[in-house]
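**Protein record**
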Amino acid sequence: MTKAIQVHQTGGPEVLSWDDIEVGEPGPGQVRLRQTAIGLNFIDVYHRTGLYPQPAPFIPGVEGAGVVEAVGPGVDWLRTGDRVAYSGPIGAYAEERLIDADRLVSLPDEVSDEQAAAMLLQGMTAHMLLRRVYPVQAGDTILVHAAAGGVGLIMCQWAAALGAMVIGTVSTDAKAEIAQAHGCAHPIVTSRQDFVAEVDRITGGAKLPVVYDSVGRDTFMGSLDCLAPRGMMVSFGNASGPVDPISPLLLAQKGSLFLTRPTLFHYVATRAELDTAANELFEMVATGKIRVEVKQRFPLKDAAEAHRALEARQTTGSSVLTV
């Protein structure tokens, strides 16, 4: 028997239950993974609350790192003892788990287990947003909401390395300092500054080609007002709640805008896409262009405490659950 966090019914952090589970042996194409670190992400909250429904009971979490304990039939590129990490599928909040080998990536020596668990989902999300959804170029000015969060800090560093100027929203002066230290040229403290007005001031009224918005309901309409004609609104999260329905006509009225709601799993659907995203991320970390700092650590059994901190926006950078 091993231990895992399970959700038997959706709700608040209190529904996260510390249970005994049976893992079993890996089947064809699978490995059994002994996890050493598990990523904490807002999608875990969406699963727990039922915003993204899952059949109960389920084990939340979509990101982790660890050591291969056993290899199933047909897996010829991994061996017992290999260090690996993954982003998806759900089921990460466990001491051990079974997972399809084709969703794993091998970890280079330069990347620790905690770094991998803290950054793989967030880092590949940043890769998707900056390199594929809207390919950022040198000279672009972009807006990144929640710039001091896990995805936000990676995006600020990556975009700055590409030669873009990053405007970022944060909730406090302390988070503004963190974002600025990670490549955000113009942090906006939303508790005392209007981000739409600040974007207009910073750009001299030219506005932006793209806005990356993980906050959702509270920022969505303002984000549209930050875009130049034919700009792209990238909505990729709901930290403040899901966005209310809008008419497509609104996009025309605000400048023939583009709107997309990307999901990482559609951008790493093939083995080649997964390898490309992970390897480009690892290269950015290995060369020092992106620093991944684990700011918070919670024991796996205290996942409820971790969720409370995440939802209260008390975290900065990356957080992991330790096993």
User: Anything to note?
Assistant: The CA atoms of residues 165 and 255 lie 22 Å apart. The mean pLDDT is 96. The longest strand covers residues 30-39.
